[in-house]
Specification:
The chain is mostly helical and about 160 residues long. It has helices at about 5-30, 45-70, 75-100, 105-130, 130-135, 135-155.
Length: about 160
Amino acid sequence: MKFKPLAFIINIAITLGVGALGGWATAQSVKTWYPTLNKPSFNPPDWLFAPVWTSLYILIGIAAYLVWVRRDKIVHFPRTVAIYLIQLILNLAWSFIFFYLHEIGFALAEIILLLLVIVINAITFYKINKWAGILFIPYIMWVSFATFLTYNIFILN
């Protein structure tokens, strides 16, 4: 398949846009509320989150592009897009629930649902393009860690 640079950029821009909105939701609380929480010893330093999430959003965008270029061959393309969009919405929602609303318990329930939908998304993408599914593995690993971290923050607070 021929590389489509505009589609590639748009797919990455969508995920980075979601990340930017999430960053907006977290910006104030990272300075004020989050430092007051009891956190487990394995809590990463604050500076690590932005580069990790930026890298993940780029990988997610690349995966979406790999699926998008095959859209004409996908029987259930609208369903695939719906799963992808639900995953992005849940990703964004977690930032608002945890950092903006300060609802740790609700954020824990939501991130468990997010992780499930990410796995479904990865499997769906893998069936369309092996690399699109594989690119979701770091995302699954990070959100698994974030789920464990959220659980521990919930227990400690």
